[in-house]
Structure formats: C-alpha cells, structure tokens
Amino acid sequence: MKLKTRIIVGFGMSILVPLLLFSATLYGLGHTKFAQQTKDSSEVVYDISVGESTHSQTQVRIIAKDLLFTATVILVFTALSIGLWIYRSIATPLVKLKKATQNIKEGNLDFVLEVDGDDEFSELCRDFEEMRKRLKESAEEKVLMDKENKELISNISHDLKTPITAVKGYVEGIMDGVADTPEKIDRYVKTIYNKTNEMDHLINELTFYSKIDTNRIPYTFSKLNVEDYFSDCAEEVGLELETRGIELVYANYVEDNVQVIADGEQIRRVIHNIISNAIKYMDKSKGIIQIRIKDVGDFIQVEIEDNGKGIAAKDLPSIFDRFYRTDVSRNSSKGGSGIGLSIVKKILEDHGGKVWATSRLGIGTIMYFVLRKYQEVPMK
Predict the structure, then answer these.
(1) CATH code, 222-372
(2) Cβ contact 327:334 at 8 Å
(3) What PROSITE patterns is this protein classified in (predicted)?
(4) How many CB atoms lie within 10 A of CB 71?
(5) How many CB atoms lie within 10 A of CB 212?
C-alpha cells in the first residue's frame, strides 16, 4: 500500500474508529439506564423526595466522566494503533536501508536488500538494491580490467624484451666480426629486420587496444573491389612469408565486380593478425598458409588455413577472448600480447561480420571471417 494511501486510511480510521466506539459506548450506557429504569418502574413508589434534582445532577456528572474517560481511552488506543501501523511501514524499510548503506560505506557489496510491499519506501529499497547490483558489477569489471591491464603490461614487457635481446645479440655479432661473410651479414640483417617488425607490431597492438577500450577505433568505410583488394593483401603477406620460408597459396573464387563496404586498413590488420598467429605456431619444416576468398550469398567469406600445430578443442571457444593464450608456458619463441585475435573479433563485429575457427591438433587451423557484400538498391 502506498504511503499516501496509508496516511489517508489512517486519517479516516482516526475519525471513524473513535466515532464507532463512542457510539457503541453511548448505546451501552443508554441500554443499561433503560434497563435500570424498567426495573425501577416495576416498583410503584408514591414518595416524592426533595433531593431528586441533586441526585439527577450527580448521575449526569458520573455519566459525563465515564464518557470522557471512554473517549480518551478510545482516542489513545486509536492513535497508538494507527501510529504503530504507519511507523512500522516506514521504519522497517528504513532500518534495512540504513544497514545496506552502512555495508556499502564499508565496501561490502555482497549482500541482498530484500523488501516486501509496494509503497514508496519499498520502491526506494528496490532501487537501492538495483544500484548495489550495478555497483558490484562495476567493481568486478574494474578488478577484471586492472587484472587484464597488468597482464597486458607483463605480456608486452616480456615480448618486447625477447626481440630486443635478439637484436642486441645480432648487432654485437656484426660489430665483433662474428658475421664475417656477406651471407652471414645478410642473414643477421634480415633477422634484425624481422625482430624490429615484431616490436613494431606489438606496439601497434598496444595502441590499438587502448582505442578498443575507449571505443575510439578510427574507421573509414568505403567500397572495396574484392578481387583487387584481397590480391593486394595476399601480395603483401606473401613477401613477409617468403622471408620466413613459408609458402603462400592464394585462391579467389569471387567474380570480378563483387564489392564490400569496409575499412581497408582495418581489414588488413585482421589478415595480418591472423597470419601472425599462424606464423607464431607454425611447427612444420615446410610451412604452408592458404588464403581462399569465397562468395556465400550475401557475404564474402575469407578462409585462412595453416598447417601448424593446431588448437586443442578445449581452447578453441576461447581463442578470441582478450589475453587468452593456449601457450600457457609462455615459450619466448611464441610471444604475443594475447590480444591479436580479440582485435580481429572486435573489428569484424564493427563491420557487421563475424569470425570463427576450426582446428585439428597436429594438422592445422582454419580461420574464417565474413563481410557483407555491397548491393545497390534499385531506384523505383
């Protein structure tokens, strides 16, 4: 019952209850006097007393006192009952609310504020409980974010140290004359170049990660010809794979005039992150990475397949989560910040597409992602 309704009901009861009880009292007294008069009338007495008027006045005073006492008792009883009824409806939720406020003040959010009723105070308590839930969710998200940030710093620090140490070693080898032939110098320089590329990629991932968290990814959408765009991407990837001794097989099964609406730079980042992941876990002496472009109705499907070590079935559902790494031992040759595939997922979701993977241990992994085709709406 709403507080306003309780007050109106209480006000009405404070008027009606005393009136009813007072009326009942008058009726009882009148009935008693009538019975006494009836009894007295059965005895006919012809004696007229001089003090009769004094006796009547005394009886009136007694009746008035009785009525006043009765009215006072009725009013006090009614006021106490109504006051207690209204007080309990206000005090009970307020006590719970005060206790809940004290818990939050002390930093304790692991409690439940349970309140029955539908008055204003109960609604206030329910709103307070909703606020507690949101505060708890916010606190848990903050703890998780702090943990992720610490893990990211740890990952980046570890993975930057590895290539820096390698670069330093190779530079010292060149300076000390260890690389004493043109072939050795060329090999050392190529290794240094690859390691600096790894560092550049890690720094770019860190920068992009900060933009993801603040939803400030700079997208520039435009119409892209599927054949031309992915052919260029394959050519770029092929040059990098060639330096690593990995073969690239590219196949386009899409017609010449098919287009997609996408951000060319960010889709390149998607392909680069997937290829980098494939390179990282390549365990075959003759590595092969295949890129296939297919037309699947309203979407363009891109498949990137490798013959690397594969991913265990238990890890497959989590590979697109931030900081998830199947390489729990953190082998230095397989570094990475653990956010590459989560960036892939975020970019593709922002493009209205999706990404998924299939894998078999010891055989390899296939990464799939789709982009919606550009279709012109005919003018009527």
Answers:
(1) 3.30.565.10
(2) yes
(3) HAMP, HIS_KIN
(4) 14
(5) 16
pLDDT along the chain (380 residues), means of 10: 61 66 63 54 46 63 71 74 71 80 85 76 82 89 81 73 85 85 87 84 77 75 93 90 89 92 92 90 90 93 93 88 62 58 90 92 93 74
CA 89, CA 115: separation in Å to the nearest integer?
11
Determine what percent of the chain is predicted with pLDDT higher than 70: 76
Residue extents of the structural domains in the chain: 3-32+60-134, 145-214, 222-372
Could you say which of 1.10.760.10, 3.50.50.60, 1.10.287.130, 3.40.190.10 is the CATH number of the domain covering 145-214?
A: 1.10.287.130
- In this structure, the dihedral spanned by the alpha carbons of residues 140, 145, 151 and 157, taken in order and rounded to 10 degrees, is -160
By CB atoms closer than 10 A (0-12, 13-18, 19+), residue 289 is: buried
CB 113 within 8 A of CB 129: yes
pTM of the model: 0.59
Contacts of 170 (CB under 8 A, 6+ apart): 188, 191, 192, 195
Per residue, what are the HEC states of the chain?
Answer: CCHHHHHHHHHHHHHHHHHHHHHHHHHHHHHHHHHHHHHHHCCCCCCCCCCHHHHHHHHHHHHHHHHHHHHHHHHHHHHHHHHHHHHHHHHHHHHHHHHHHHHHHCCCCCCCCCCCCCCHHHHHHHHHHHHHHHHHHHHHHHHHHHHHHHHHHHHHHHHHHHHHHHHHHHHHHHHCCCCCCHHHHHHHHHHHHHHHHHHHHHHHHHHHHHHHHCCCCCCCCEEEEHHHHHHHHHHHHHHHHHHCCEEEEEEECCCCCCEEEECHHHHHHHHHHHHHHHHHCCCCCCEEEEEEEEEECCEEEEEEEECCCCCCCCCHHHCCCCCCCCCCCCCHHHCCCCCHHHHHHHHHHHCCCEEEEEEECCCEEEEEEEEEECCCCCCC
